[in-house]
Amino acid sequence: MNAPTLTLTRRVRSTPFTSRIESFGITSYTVYNHMLLATQIVDVEDDYWHLRRAVQVWDVSCERQVEICGPDAARLAQMLTVRDMREFPIGRCGYAPVVDGDGHLINDPVVTKVGDDRFWFSVSDSDVVLWAGGIAHALGLDVRVFEPDVWPLAVQGPYAEDVIATVFGEAVRDIRFFRFAPLPFEDHELIVARTGWSAQGGFEIYVDDAELGGRLFDAVMIAGDQHDIRPGCPNLIERLEAGLMTYGSDITRDDTALEAGLGRFCALEAPIEAIGIEALRRQKAEGVRRQIASIAIDGDRLPICRDPWPVIADGRQVGSVTSAAWSPRLEINVALSMMAIEHAAVGSTVVVDTPDGARRATVSTTPFPGASQR
Amino acid sequence: MNAPTLTLTRRVRSTPFTSRIESFGITSYTVYNHMLLATQIVDVEDDYWHLRRAVQVWDVSCERQVEICGPDAARLAQMLTVRDMREFPIGRCGYAPVVDGDGHLINDPVVTKVGDDRFWFSVSDSDVVLWAGGIAHALGLDVRVFEPDVWPLAVQGPYAEDVIATVFGEAVRDIRFFRFAPLPFEDHELIVARTGWSAQGGFEIYVDDAELGGRLFDAVMIAGDQHDIRPGCPNLIERLEAGLMTYGSDITRDDTALEAGLGRFCALEAPIEAIGIEALRRQKAEGVRRQIASIAIDGDRLPICRDPWPVIADGRQVGSVTSAAWSPRLEINVALSMMAIEHAAVGSTVVVDTPDGARRATVSTTPFPGASQR
Predict the structure, then answer these.
(1) What pLDDT digit, counting tens, does each position of A175-195 carry?
(2) ipTM greater than 0.95, yes or no?
(3) CB distance B134–A139 less than 8 Å?
(4) Which of B6, B134, B138 sits opposite A6 (nearest CB)?
(5) What is the pTM of this model?
(6) Which positions in chain A touch B133 (Cβ < 8 Å)?
(7) What domains can be seen in chain B, in order of their start residue?
(8) Residue B324: which of B316, B313, B332 has the closest Cα?
(9) B91 phi and psi, to 5 degrees?
(10) Which is nearest to B106 in space by CA: B87, B88, B131, B86?
């Protein structure tokens, strides 16, 4: 069978950058938050090497913002996440796990405090706008919950800072990791954050004007010309080397925030009113029985992981590989797996039941060696 | 540019039927409720003619069920929809618009009352499980809200009843339109409903056991062999001839239930506690200013509608075409458009600004002539 194409209709939303990306050429898409997200521009290995040596512009409009604003915004934002939001400063971006009453993950967004009564949850692939909106409606909170038309554009790779400095000025060099600053482009102020879904470093620009976005895209391409810039996208190999999890693939509603390895973002000791925090406190007291881990699978190149691959030890299933890719740099299959805690330590060896047969595998450090070049 | 493929990962979930559909062959997918949904098996016109003359088996697992069960289930179900659920009988399926506090559409599901304290909302493409779950959590309702592992399998086309009768027995012939009955397959009882997303008639079977589902699929294929059965999927041409709207394409959160043409399912006179009903009452009193309509666009074959096409009358925009397809039977472009009310009457003529230039168009009856053969 030839690989099925993706049917392009309004429901899988285009972005202000889609026509530019498509005129460059694109091999594969996925759908993320009801929106197009490229997965391969040339092919996944070519994209990987290019991302590590040059610079890419990524259309990550699908990182939808859920805006919460109004007098009760701070209260609702704190209810939504088990991260401690009490002293969270304007200008910071932070992982902020959103869990249900049982501590199970609804989303693993990055939260940005845009103003005192205004928060953006930059969400992974689930309709947090409905979770937050349902709670706000039921409690009669004085707050607006909606998805503003904001389309993040990422610039990632070793030359990202130079490109962004050319477009926005030298002030970008002072932005620290996971901080943002409002910077001018044309006569418009845009939020520029030192964030992004790669280990190569870079920025994300929160574009809130579609036409301006097109011109910004063009300005970034011109600024990056000397560094061989081209369109790119989150790269399967690169993100697995870095140990970056995808909600829906590697972590799901079946997993708690602690099992998903997000414990350091869960303020379990803090006296905060956050949905699910009691369940996570109980789980921590009782002991977390499984956790996500990076693993290296021996042997030659494996196919893409569509359905979880069982992980076996001592004759029984102790985990599931949920994403895997051949690393042409490390010459191993790099993967993420949910693992029983007693098999999750670095160096632990297991067997993975892959479509190409049983393979030996070893739990790795996260990230893999050399994932980041910084 | 070649048409981009869809990258197949765990996040775009496979179903118990995926391997069978793919071994037959499939041209295109979409992603719907984070799950694979075929859009073309051979090609959209070949699939269309086959659906009208024979019978098809559709993997519509992506029609996820949101189950609400427990002592407060009936109360929450009524809060979630502006349909009057008070006398809703077990055994019926019904459209049940789910709207926010402003009357704007969150989803247009079909609700099934499975038991006195147990409802299934069979949802279109948005995470109703989060909306319903957020409300239930905030109000402390004694209810469980979750997506059970239920994968609907549809059999659609003129010979659907014969095929289903061969598999489940003659009792299926007594099931009325939008009613269901529990019927045996092997030693298991499955809900079989006379529903489906085509005008050709047929059934949907709510499969709640993955392995049984595979055997059911095979039994349906054998039973349909004499009628030239093959895998199919919701067909763009057929659904536009029938006037079947898609949430996310033709109707969105920007539209109220009344603008989406769902007024007959909104019990605005009933004394019920339903979210958004006050807003819809106000809108009805003030007058609905736009509504969805079927329109026929003149001229030869148009491309697929990715972004809304402006509809022009009297020199200004009066609507947007959101889906369009060439009907090889009617030899016109059949479409759905949101229209200003004063241009929405059957026979009204407008101009559509298509990618192939301005075209004359006429508001049609819904459905188009001959859409259903029954």
Answers:
(1) 999 999 999 999 999 999 999
(2) yes
(3) no
(4) B6
(5) 0.97
(6) 100, 131, 134
(7) 18-63+150-239 (3.30.1360.120), 289-374 (2.40.30.110)
(8) B332
(9) 105, -5
(10) B131
